[in-house]
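Q: What would this chain look like folded?
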Amino acid sequence: REMAEQGAARAEGPAAAAIAAAWVGGAHSLRAAVFAGGTLGAVARLALDRLIPVTPGTWPWPTFAANILGTLLLGYLTTRLLERLPPSTHLRPLLGTGFCGALTTFSTFQIEAIDLGRDGHATFAATYVTASIAAGMLAIAASTALVRRARVRHR
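A: My prediction, written as structure tokens:
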């Protein structure tokens, strides 16, 4: 940090100084917010996997639950942060990109659907994909509507 501040002091022109200042404070703190949120989201995802065991050929409840919960939270948090709360530099990266990004998983969802199809459960795989997308769309619409419907307190 000290070296970056010295570099900012020696930088020529306002653009170089602004870049150096952003490097010192903004970029690292945003990365830390994403990292912290991602850590918590990954732990929550692991907890779901441990709490709900899955056997081959059955509904992949941990992934389904993580993706729907993550979508619900993302819709709620994003709408609330953008439309109801004062601007914050770190809350969206912490909660949206970090926590919800680590909690949800498209890659596992995709692999599980492909595995179901390969194992002779093509209709079940199609149902899983359709239900996941439909439930995700409903979750985002419901959580966004919930935030927008709530009354705003005026002080």
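The chain has a mean pLDDT of 86.
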